[in-house]
Amino acid sequence: MKVVALFLLVVGCAIADQTPPGTSTRPILTSSEASNYQKSNYLQGWSPESISTSSADYTVGSGGYSTIQAAVNAAIKAGGSSRKHIKISAGTYSEVVYIPSTNVPLTLYGAGSSPSNTVISLSLSALISGSTYKNMVGGLFSSGDPAYSMFESCASKSAIGTSCSSVFWVKAASVQIVNLTIENSSKNTGTDQAVALQTNSDKVQIENSRLLGHQDTFYSGGGGTTTQRSHVTNTYIEGDVDFVFGGGTTVFEGCTFHAKADRNSEAVVFAPETDPSQTYGYLVVSSTITGDNAYADSRKVYFARSWDAGLSSANEYVAGSSPNGQVVIRESTINGVIPTKAPYTTATSGRTYSGNAGSSRNLNDALLLLAVAYASATQTSPGTSSRPILSSTEAASYTKAKYLQGWTPSTISTSTADYTVGSGYSTIQAAVNAAINAGGTTRKYIKIPAGTYSEVVYIPNTNVPLTIYGGGSAPANTVISLSLSATLTGTQYKSAVGSLFSSGDPAYSIYSSCASKSAIGTSCSTVFWVQAPGVQIVNLTIENSSKNSGTDQAVAVQTNADKVQIHNARLLGHQDTLCSGSGGTTVQRSHVSDCYIAGDVDFVFGGGSTVFEGCTFHAVAGRSTEAVVFAPDTAPSISYGYLVIDSTITGDTSFLTSKEVYLARSWDSGVSSSSDYVAGTSPNGQVVIRESTIDGVVSTTAPYTTATSGRAYSGNASSSRNLNNNSYNRFWEYGNSGDGA
């Protein structure tokens, strides 16, 4: 590859100072330069379509077509210009999928609750012979089939090569790939190419998928002067050598790129071969670049190298004629697996990386590989008394393992259903009751089909571990929503939810207690209440829709138990959306991953030990001019409250001007005034926010506010501080990025 215009525009990469123009080994864009490298610039007039998975013209499995290729063939042969939808039932498919050039726009989507439920996997190496290839995949193709020429060409080769190693190969425009895992499982000890997905066409969309492999996992665009645009969203891509490569114009949005360490001691994420006449190659925005733990010490994951396609040595490179890859990485999280000073490496031809840090540089200079990052705030320890920052040594004591204290969250499966709502159970609560009444210690799975459920769900203390998951393709498809305010009377509450409970039901005592109150209070305003350990909540939207003009509590989810997992869910409300842990000296651990949590006042609160990983916290401005995200009431004897990692804190645009989204305030539970507070006895919330993106809705100088008791915020910026000194607030940050950091 030629020196790539690699503009690393990481508005908030937490691992290095992002001050323009950067250095010759790590150039950084100015805000003015960055304005020319946005999503709209790359897509060049194309607005990706909304993707629908609500219909199926062709179904694979479940009584439909026996192979995906057969369904593709049928859709193409049907002709026309209307989009055809191919539903692939949950399962594992050991086959290739070829979509030749056609005017029929196709959508292929997995029917499982997540991409991991519908897997297309095969082991194909570029080195295998045509005859071996033919034995592996030939049964899928017959003369006259739309993709037969693709198969025949590959089968005729002595060694099939990179393109023919593709498990899923797209040559048609406007293809949509949704909710699938596509894997090339080839794993040898060398560096053989083994492509999971290849796209050689325009206007391709990939959403909510997983692309798995080692070398050359995703081949995006075939290079040359013809523009081939793709939009890849909310997708996980893993590999080791050049695992995203090609010459297309591709926007990656909300994606995770994960470098594997099981074959090699180093990895390269991007290997573009953008034609020198093309200004736009790859744009990576609002994404995460990470890797296996082995790279945390070596830092041998490189952002990119230039794929000098067709060149056998560096001296064959001709600036302006040879391919010169182009990449911009911006507003993304880059974990500590990347070398901070020299994150790019030598091109495939052996050509040395060359970056332009000149103040008057030409960003399309054919001689230079530009890796540019947009400048952002830096977080330097020990910080200030209004915003303390941890040192790397201090941060080592506040990791996921420290908070989970010996617990490893279980792998979550949604492939089985012991109880299905709507099939014998008219309500979610009825299915929960049945699962608990069945007894035992084996995990029970409750599937909730797509739809909206206006009810509460109570899981009382039980030894039966429960997994409750939505059966839709995304959390938004399965919604549990009710309006319950803490100021409701017991009578009003009883009218709202009483039909769900009968004497003798497992959760009847919870209901009976709430119904007896004059005002039900915060806990009884909960829509989804967990009092049992080991509960898993997956792929659901849980909403408390109560929205008054005051500050009444209205909880969407409450957990008062240990080892609770919430994954790929949306928790919606206003005040007190998520109550995570009931406080006190008993440790209640939770792991909340890949979730969206919205609210305004103290919308994540409680006394548990909770790890939030890969989550988005969104401050809503509909009721108030300010918002507070976290309000912990951690007991002073507990060192670990809330850990927020690899996440995003953002809010409605009106907060961009006011900057009145506060990261946290202490919930001084049971303390009526600041004079009643006793250090070491009263609750003193604990929060660490690290390696996350904090948008410009948060004040950079004063991101914390007064406690619920009226106690003024007090941060400890001493270089010799005790991080558990309860005379100070225990709110800390480390390695965050973004305009609010």
Automatic annotation (TrEMBL):
GO terms for molecular function: pectinesterase activity. Residues 61-135, 159-308, 512-668 form the Pectinesterase catalytic domain. GO terms for biological process: cell wall modification; pectin catabolic process. Residues 1-16 form the signal peptide. Gene3D superfamilies: Single-stranded right-handed beta-helix, Pectin lyase-like. Keywords: Aspartyl esterase, Hydrolase, Signal. Pathway: Glycan metabolism; pectin degradation; 2-dehydro-3-deoxy-D-gluconate from pectin: step 1/5. Its EC number is 3.1.1.11. It comes from the Eukaryota. The active site is at residues 242, 602. Transmembrane segments: none annotated. It catalyses: [(1->4)-alpha-D-galacturonosyl methyl ester](n) + n H2O = [(1->4)-alpha-D-galacturonosyl](n) + n methanol + n H(+). Belongs to the pectinesterase family. This is pectinesterase. It comes from Dendroctonus ponderosae (Mountain pine beetle).
